[in-house]
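Page 37, top half.
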Amino acid sequence: MPASVVFKSLPPSCQNPGSRHRIWQPMNDRRDHALIERPYRRDRAVAYTERWALGRNPAYADFSTLGGDCTNFASQCVFAGSGVMNPTPETGWYYYSLQSRSASWTGVEFFADFMLRNRGIGPYAVLVPLSQVKPGDVIQLGNAERFYHSLIVLGKNSYEVYVAAHSQDALWRELSSYSYAHLRCLHFPAVRVYE
């Protein structure tokens, strides 16, 4: 049985102005708590994305010179919309520092694998066609060998999807301006938390 958890507020530098993002941290076992779903806050994900797309939040390391910052930024945005991490060692999705983070926080393939398989606490994703993406969702671009880039959806109309990203910083960039062979769209239906 998973350990029960408590909310611990993040320092102000990690929060969006006016929001209350929190990290789940293990506490002594309380078996009376059940895993429930709550809405993914797309408005908060988009607000965070717009605030930091062309800059860097000092609460997080910048991975631009360490293989790319795109998935680190996508994780920050999804965290802004979910307000909860999954601190499970080795297989979770979390960031506490450069030395204390999961591979799924910064790696394109690890991020998708976690989000698509997560049955525990935190956000989870399902694959959808491009026509069904919503603001706050993540699109990953790929070539013949692998997926290599993570983008955050900001909006769309009948003929274009608009995204933001790090590595090659972008804000409200047209998805059609990217060159790619494949894409996958990760849609976040909800967030699982302990009641």
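Page 37, bottom half:
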Amino acid sequence: MTPQQSIRIVSELASLFPARKLSAKSAENYARLLVDCDYIQTQTAIRELAKSVDFMPSVARIRATAISGMDDGSEFRGWAEVQSAIGIYGVYRSPQFKDPVAEYATACIGWQTICRCQESELGYLRHNWLEAYKSGRDRARRIGVEQLMMETNASGLQGLHEKRDPGLRGQSIGELADRAAKRLIGDGE
């Protein structure tokens, strides 16, 4: 969050817990120690804490609550939605997702790549999709869901790796992982 947002968080915190008067130095310390957190998650955390605790929470408690709110399991629900869509839409029809971040993650991997994945490669695919989902969730928090959807729709759900390197089309997840590993250890292309 920005320093201004951090100050707004501390101001809201002070208003939610009026019994504790924050000194200027304490308010400055709260703002400085929360500035690296996500604004929306921190705001949600202090509002949840205001409902459940009697006294002003420590910075550590606010941070722990904000972090626990980030891992809400939505990526696993999104993955389940993708697996269901494979059976409903098949490889040649474009899926419709309820979760815009699931749509983003699917665009990153490529719908046809997901549909054509061999069972032996499913672990790679799931891991990569979950990482793309987390990246999309973070990006949506920064730029907004509407902008994320515009970017996703512009990608055409054909897979960002397919757009970067047309030679990668049709390769399996395992082949892509092997190629990436060879590049990392220096004996690849």
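Margin note: The radius of gyration is 21 Å.
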